[in-house]
Design goal:
Length: 367
Amino acid sequence: MLAHVLTSAASWNSEQPLLTYSVPIELEDRLGPGQLVAVPYGERLVEGIAWSTDTANDEDGLELRPISAILDVEPALLAHQITLAEWVSAYYVTPLSRIAFNMLPPGLLQRSQVVLHMAKTEREEAGEGGLEKATSLRLQALVGLLLADGELDVEKLKKMLGLKRAKEVLKEALTSGIVEREAQLSSPFAKKRLKRVVRLVAQGEELAAWRQRTEARIGQYLPSTNAINMAPDNVRRRPKKSTPDPWAMTGTADVLTLTPQDRVSLQAQRQLAAVDLLQNEMATNGNNAHYWAPSKLCKATSLTPAQLQALVRENIVAIEVVEVRRDPLQGHTIPASMPLTLTPAQERALEHILDFLALEEGSGREY
């Protein structure tokens, strides 16, 4: 089985952008178009897209290099996206690799790196024997480093020793047969998006009991109001000195200071508002509910971080770190639209096109 792979490394060849590789038997039933694969390219290992497959066993009798690995079983490009990339490349006379790799999410591609590790025969033996076989001190130092760490990136070795000395050590190590060089792909730049969120954990009777206690605290500390007689005569006449003026703010500024009871009532109101937001979000969107970050929830309800932590201690809410999907359209509602009405001229043109296609349908010509 053969696979035609599109790589960014071979983008210089715009006439033949696809490279042909043989598919190992263990990968034949799992390889499909659109998947990301690792393939050898010179001395490097590069990432590519399996563009198409062929059931042929060889390519004109040539010896082909095999695909190294399937990086992701899920296709990075679907069939219609592959067709679209081919059309864009042909229409705009642009390299196919440039079109296809720009269709992938940023950070998905991986960087090729070359690492050094002990040869398989040396690893199977005592391991420490590799130091005895090293003929020079610098080779012994490299072997000791590989025995301790397992592998070493060649670029890191160049930074440690400098370009000239690193090449000398590398040549000596590969000639000795103690050390092997292998091409690998580094980890992708794209990582999981983690977010601290607030989740409502209390449900049912537990939440109802907490709500009842909170509402009772609010009602307990509400200030009492005295009814003031606002008869029409009081509006027309100047109030007597013995009658309190309902619009006047009596007392000093200390009256406006929040008492401890007022703070308890205000905290209960804010906590109740936060729980209502979380509960309404779950009731409206269910499993697709948007996540509330602690900072955003505090800003929306005027909660302080300490008041939010009080809800956490009461096991009403929990602050967790979850993985969230990168969706640029999350939280945006896209209204449904209707197809635009064609103008009379457009309708006549469409009729001519459909009539022409109906006449040429049996001719076998493609348009």
